[in-house]
Amino acid sequence: MNDDIDKLRIDKWLWAARFHKTRSLAAEAVDSGKVKVNGVEAKRAKTVGAGDRLELRLGRFVFHIDVLGISNKRGPAPEAQKLYRETEESKEARARLADQLRADAPLFHFKGRPSKRDRRQIAKFHKTHAES
Q: Span 8-104: which CATH code?
């Protein structure tokens, strides 16, 4: 964390906090409306500081985080995690969504054309589920 700065552009902060791999991906997320600062949709040049509340959408997951610090340098993950704190409600909601996505996952994961063994398993699955 740098003590000499107290505000930083949102795209730079998201990159430094390791929410996105590159600054351009962070800027793209901000431009597409996936980031809110204190409940307001953010623009790329919006500055954030300690005490701000962010809402980030990454895929299907939504993070509600409080900004604790500012850094304009991307460091290791343990250092980046000191820049923010995720709310308990956000953690619980993400855990519920992850559980639901695992439960809804398909039973079979094939790469390419099914093998003879795979086709037997599919037939067995259809036979057992057709009876119930």
A: 3.10.290.10
